[in-house]
UniProtKB/TrEMBL annotation:
<dbReference type="InterPro" id="IPR053864">
    <property type="entry name" value="DUF6933"/>
</dbReference>
<protein>
    <submittedName>
        <fullName>DUF6933 domain-containing protein</fullName>
    </submittedName>
</protein>
<dbReference type="Pfam" id="PF22016">
    <property type="entry name" value="DUF6933"/>
</dbReference>
<feature type="domain" description="DUF6933">
    <location>
        <begin position="3"/>
        <end position="155"/>
    </location>
</feature>
Length: 165
């Protein structure tokens, strides 16, 4: 099961929280945090709690958002050369999704930084590909990762290696 810890803005659009506060789900990478970016069309920004990996996807239609998360997260993981065994396992465990409220202020802060950077790229090119933008943001140094692997793409690679060994 995938747990998505969403901001109040996103919960108003996507549905009420159903996940208990202490539930981490069954995915290898753990919970994801999410917010809405009020672009035209609206976009959802997800950030993984463990790796701080960003993922972007269209919000519309909001009623099907939770059903579309596994495919988009898998696409970004594949774009960052995550091992196919991990991508497949994550997709299987993400078939069921529950929304919850945010619980980690550090991840919310990183998500806010990614939202600002994404806005800059979107302002430069409103037709920017969301997967390509997520991959580009994944190379951004993040202060919570400075003592480990510096950026989400490197943290994903290290986490993937640790999981497969």
């Amino acid at each position: 099961m995938l747990i998505v810890r969403a901001t109040r803005k996103l919960l108003r659009l996507a549905g009420p929280p159903t996940a208990p506060d202490d539930d981490r789900g069954t995915t290898l990478l753990g919970p994801w945090y999410a917010t809405v970016l009020f672009w035209r069309p609206r976009v959802v920004l997800l950030v993984n709690e463990t790796t701080l990996l960003p993922v972007l996807l269209p919000l519309a239609p909001a009623a099907t958002l939770t059903g579309r998360l596994a495919e988009r997260i898998g696409t970004v993981l594949t774009s960052l050369d995550a091992p196919s065994a991990i991508v497949d396992r994550e997709r299987r465990h993400m078939q069921t999704t529950q929304l919850g409220v945010t619980a980690n202020r550090s991840v919310v802060g990183v998500m806010t930084d990614f939202a600002r950077l994404a806005q800059i790229h979107h302002d430069d090119d409103p037709t920017v590909d969301l997967v390509a933008l997520a991959v580009r943001l994944a190379a951004t140094p993040c202060s919570p990762l400075y003592r480990r692997n510096i950026s989400p793409d490197r943290e994903l690679a290290a986490t993937s290696q640790a999981i497969t060994t």
